[in-house]
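pinging the channel bc i need a second pair of eyes. not urgent but kinda urgent?? the chain im working w is below, pasted from the shared doc
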Amino acid sequence: MDGGALYSIGDLARRTGLTVKTIRFYSDRGIVVPADRSPAGYRLYGVDAVARLELVRTLRELGLDLATVRKVVDRELSLAEVAAAHAEALAVQIRTLRLRRAVLSAVAERGASPEEMEIMHTLARLSDGERRRLIDEFLDAVFGGLDGNPEFAAARRSMTPELPESPEAEQVRAWVELAELARDPEFRARVRRVAEEHAAEGARGSALRRDVVAVVRERAGAALAAGVDPASRQADPVVDELVGHYAGIVGRPGDAALRRRLLARLENVNDPRRQRYVELLAQVNSWPAPERLTPVLDWAVAALRARMPDAV
């Protein structure tokens, strides 16, 4: 058949790969119109019907509804306009599917109850504004009254998660877990206590004195790397240095009472939930994995405990 020939529905089906039933459906709705009828009354179509049907099939496979498809093939809408609108709709669907996948993956990994799954699903579906309010509430509880200090203002910024517009499933899972932590009153109180202790030490200590946690990271980290047992005599100089440094910060003698105070300080900092928050924050914000302070803090806590008057 050449360009002036007419095609039956069967011919169109063979040329386009569509079924006769589908072509008849499109024809009944005026999307592809017969050019003529055979003597027996069967519909016949011009060569343009092949190109029209192939465009219809492509648009339908891309998910466009039939009304929009008809407007495109009738040139009531430009293909570029429809493609842009449909691409945006697909982006929304993809974000929704990622959220659902992340929640289901978290439920599967954690063996969550129906109640926990509902909470996770709610947290995952929060809008940008709702997420911001949740985190602002957490940070207000932690830094309220303290963030006039530039150091705490910077800390607040560094603890703010920013979920991307099109997050990966891992980022959504991290956000849900981070949001659960931020809503935990006990965790809020623990982080607030650490912030208050740090603020008090900064107010009393010399500006030239380093934060005790920074000294622990350096001195206990070196001892840990060297394989020093925290309960051994080799650890004595390290503990003495840490205690002496802390005594200088708070302006108290380095006695047993101060050692207990330093131990409590490091135990607060060493809360596993705090380390987890920092790790989740890095995942959500696509930051490099943070330094793990837990091993160093564990060493320092064990060394102090071994030298408490009531230690066995």
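so The chain has a mean pLDDT of 87. and The chain has two domains: 9-77, 129-312. — does that match what u expected or am i reading it wrong
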